[in-house]
Amino acid sequence: MLLIRAFEERLDQLFAEGSLRGTTHFCIGQEASAVGACAALEPLDYVTSTHRGHGHCLAAGGDPNRMMAEIFGRKDGYCQGKGGTQHMAALEIGFLGSNGITGGGIPIATGAALSSKLRKLGRVALCFFGDGAANQGAFHECLNMAGLWNLPVIYCCENNLYAMGTSTAQAFANPDIAGRAPMYGMPGVRVDGTDALEVYGAVQAAASRARAGEGPTLIEISTYRFLGHSRSDARKYRTREEEAEWRSRDPILKWRDRLLGEKWLNEQEEKAMRSEVERQIEEAVTFSRASPVLDSDAARVGAFR
């Protein structure tokens, strides 16, 4: 979680100083969702992500150097700089990609789960998506298919209360996303997304069900993005009081306090962890700045190998 937070905060600085152009979508505040879920997977399992996918890729085992280089648009990035922040894939670790299309990862995860079942690979597909994607047609179609065919897929809805600036109260006739699961022939679970261990337990149970041939699970993870939808978002649709309340439940501070309280971690060890994370992030920036840009022939559409 510290690595994800530091990665995102450094990216914010790089965009602010003009080292990076365009925009990005930070997952600051949602680290426990990514880490708890991915920690419950096996190395060969599949993960699909969203436009807010840096944390998912890191939690799945992504290399910060190659991730940062991808966002810099450099040759040593996971997609040689062609995918960028919203379309980054690391197939060697089963990360099938972040996705700039709302709900775009849901059919990909469903297809990966179907492939795993037909080929008897024993792999589970974990699909991250936001509350906004739960109202996309692909959500309904894929969950129905997964339930009908008993596919080994875990649908993790990161409900951070807002699809861009539209609240769930405005977008859902019934905001109970997990409650939809029985209609698709699968269990639905709701967990506290500020608690990495609670997320881990739910995903671990769902993965065990899937590997045992018992089919899919829908998990609604209650979480919150501390920053705006993207860098240009002034967050006028929510109050500073609401933000302060969620910040008081910061998943990193919450887990740190538990580790310290249970004597699983001491302050010197925490300080060393933070220093190591800072070193890794600065190494990633240095690596990315030194990485070459693709030449024009290699950069053209269809040239990626």
Helix and strand composition category: alpha/beta
Estimate percent helicity: 40-55%
What summary fits the major beta sheet? 5 strands, parallel
Number of domains: 1
What's the CATH C level?
Answer: Alpha Beta
Rg from alpha-carbon coordinates:
19 Å
Outline the low-pLDDT stretches: none
CATH structural architecture: 3-Layer(aba) Sandwich
- Identify the overall geometry: globular
Distance between the ends: 32 Å
Corresponding CATH superfamily: Thiamin diphosphate (ThDP)-binding fold, Pyr/PP domains
* CATH T-level fold name: Rossmann fold
Summed up, the helix count is 12
Beta strand count: 7
- Strand order, main sheet: write it out: 1-2-3-7-6
SSE arrangement, N to C = HHEHHHEHEEEHEHEHHHH
Q: If you average the pLDDT, what whole number results?
A: 96
Strand percent estimate: 5-15%
Q: How are the SSEs placed, and which strands pair?
A:
Elements: H1 2-16, H2 31-39, E1 46-48, H3 54-59, H4 64-72, H5 105-119, E2 125-130, H6 137-149, E3 153-159, E4 162-163, E5 166-167, H7 168-171, E6 188-192, H8 196-211, E7 217-222, H9 240-247, H10 251-261, H11 267-290, H12 296-299
Parallel strand pairs: 1-2, 2-3, 3-7, 6-7
Antiparallel strand pairs: 4-5
Helix pairs in contact: 1-11, 2-8, 4-11, 5-6
Task: Tell me what the structure shows.
There is one protein chain. The strands form 2 sheets. The protein has a 5-stranded parallel β-sheet with strand order 1-2-3-7-6, sandwiched between helices. A two-stranded antiparallel ribbon has the order 4-5. By secondary structure, it is α/β, with parallel strands linked by helices. Helix 1 packs across helix 11 (267-290). The model has no long low-confidence stretch (mean pLDDT 96). It starts with a helix and ends in a 6-residue tail after the last helix. The protein contains 12 helices and 7 strands. The chain has a single domain (2-291), classed as Rossmann fold, CATH 3.40.50.
